[in-house]
């Protein structure tokens, strides 16, 4: 079911499917993130909204944060467990889509990309486990140990553009992995589109007794800024907390090469791909936050974690934080939000039109995408919001922080200036 639906979504996504860029759509007055206060508590909350349209499955827009408390992800998981299908945000590696195309040239090119992608993952899995895989099933299973999203992506890419499984060949003596597609005719040899396609990788497995400089793989550096931030604040990281390996979860986003192509088309700076992967917003927040750490340290002797969380809540709830993307180059911002949302909407259309016996669709995307998605769902499919659930992403008792009200006022002023200056850049 997973692979079949992935192929359907990938195929439909290659066609316009009636999904166009928004033209003059006005977003109703809907909040997607808010600051909440209670007795001795300050928190930041994200909303999940259920949409209805006559004759169509219910659709939930589930706003997600890259870092949050464990209870936030627990509540999101319980909500998504009610969904028949979950479409989630994550810019995919090149070659991770099911191969396809309308011409022989496109089918050959997309199959070669998938071969390279699966070969890279097979090599990485082998080197991290010290075992050469015996089958593609081994690669699919082992890849989830690297990243919970990878197993579904490897499975998607393990069938060529002619709907035949890729063939894995292993040479243990040479520690070599070779992946094959036998082209349009499915037979060894051939010319043109029928030619064999391959991807080869040499696996560098460390023998017992050999010395090697230990390289970090899933440590703080490779997890990136967001995961480091989560650890510092005693929070959870989205990619480690949610069930991306579930069989009814499907990545609904652009690939890296598609992003690069769209940026080039618009003349935007393609070197800032961290922005597209969702890291930019957090990076800007973190950058502004880190600038106030020295001042924070000057009058703190403990309790810095709660203080940091309080500052994060202040940052995220400021109106200026919503202007971050507005300060980015317009063509780049268009790719970040509109183009990626357009890809998602194609998949929503495919699910509605093609998949039978479903009653609920979950869309798991960052809150920054929702103001564009919500009105387009209404314009394209007639969806209107009928229910909402606010979920606490992060909370703190201000009394546990190291800031009294005087310092808090000063910090708010400083943070506003940092945000203002970041938006001018």
Describe what is shown at a glance.
The protein is of the alpha/beta class. It has 15 helices and twelve strands. The protein has two domains: 2-90 and 221-424, no CATH class; 104-202.
Structural description of this entry:
The protein has 15 helices and twelve strands. With 425 residues, the protein is of the alpha/beta class. It has two domains: 2-90 and 221-424, no CATH class; 104-202. Strands 1, 2, 3, 5, 10, 11 and 12 form a seven-stranded mixed β-sheet that branches. A three-stranded antiparallel β-sheet has the order 6-7-8, covered by helices on one side. A two-stranded antiparallel ribbon has the order 4-9. Helix 8 (256-266) crosses helix 13. The protein is globular, with a radius of gyration of 23 Å.
